[in-house]
Amino acid sequence: MSSPPVDDFIAREARFGARNYEPLGVVLSRGEGVFVWDTQGNRYLDCLSAYSALNQGHCHPKILAAMVEQAGRLTLTSRAFHNDQLAPFYEEIAELTGSHKVLPMNSGAEAVESAIKSVRKWGYEVKGVPDGQAEIIVCANNFHGRTLGVVGFSTDAATREHFGPFAPGFRIIPFGDLAALEAAITPNTVAFLVEPIQGEAGVIIPPAGYFTGVRELCTAHEVMLILDEIQTGLGRTGKLLAEQHEGIEADVTLLGKALSGGFYPVSAVLSNNEVLGTLKPGQHGSTFGGNPLACAVARAALRVLVEEGMIENAAVQGERFLQGLGSIRANTVREVRGRGLMLAVELNPEAGRARRYCEALQLEGILAKDTHEHTIRFAPPLVITSDQVDWALERIAAILTQDLT
């Protein structure tokens, strides 16, 4: 039986769904490795990886097997009872990342909210900040999720409009500016929450040495450094964690997305003993956080990431992809940026909206995503091969050299 027309799926989405997204006009029905297929059987190279949730590729067989096996045994207990997957998950992720404590949650935004709560509590109970006066420093053009608490300190007007009032307690500084960070710190500052690379802002990479300086400032002023590695973590930049590029360690690290290999919502707050050690029973929780199905899936996702050399492959293929993008001579291109397989091409404004180029790439068999109007992001699964990178570069070059205005 033939599949319904693409327009039928899209029309029904528009009829029944909230219009909070503007997806490309493709309806996907199957995925394997770096590829996805639409309902009409057309194949595409996925260069978004569900915003880096699919680092291990679509439907990785070992993660799938772990999910199916666990789903047939035990899926949910709530945290009212222990389960036999939580402790091994804690132990394995702590050993892999060098963390002391783990707080399991579901979505990345939940991890961010949990970290904010935890560092405020630490600030009052350990640092001695007067109650209700804790401050957290964040960066302009940040993206830490969509919850009310998080959008309150966003600088993106579209995410804030008509959603207020917002919670106080946040100070916004420019990204990559050490002097601005130092000037913003006060005795009431409990944390600096920052992305190692600003993904949604267009893959903005800070100056070399920035995070070394950030670590020194935070240590000197007894400020907890929270690194949001929900997009950058788990191999995306060619290291397990992006912090490793400058040899630093955060006090709190946030993981999500690829923590499940795209199978299930799993996130985690990784911390030193000080921050998460302040939480007492009943003060924070989640019915699904740390459930046995999530833990089994996450354990498999971490295992294949390491055992199959995906992190190392991201470094090698990322450099190949970056050099290839940089060699494209096109009047449309303003700048190429990237680290590992987290890449972006920023277009000259006169080239028109980046979405037009994403639509043209779709016709060539590549799915990529625009951001901030003039930037195209490329973030394929970490299992991509050299031949596949070269195949993509040939088609990307052909599109970028066209005038689509």
TrEMBL record:
Which cofactor(s) does the record list? Answer: pyridoxal 5'-phosphate
The record, for CDD domains, names: OAT_like
One GO molecular-function entry: identical protein binding
- Which Enzyme Commission number(s) are listed? 2.6.1.13
A GO BP entry: L-proline biosynthetic process
Statement: the UniProt record of this protein carries the keyword Nuclease:
no
**Which stretches are transmembrane?**
none
* Key words, A-Z: Aminotransferase, Pyridoxal phosphate, Transferase
**EC main group:** transferase
Q: Does the keyword Transferase apply?
A: yes
- SUPFAM superfamilies reported for this sequence: PLP-dependent transferases
Identify the pathway.
Amino-acid biosynthesis; L-proline biosynthesis; L-glutamate 5-semialdehyde from L-ornithine: step 1/1
Judging by the UniProt lineage, the source's domain of life is Bacteria
Query: Known PANTHER family for this protein?
Result: AMINOTRANSFERASE CLASS III, ORNITHINE AMINOTRANSFERASE, MITOCHONDRIAL
The family line of this record is:
Belongs to the class-III pyridoxal-phosphate-dependent aminotransferase family.
Q: What is this protein called?
A: ornithine aminotransferase
Which species expresses this protein natively? Bradyrhizobium centrolobii
Phylogenetic placement of the source organism? Bacteria, Pseudomonadati, Pseudomonadota, Alphaproteobacteria, Hyphomicrobiales
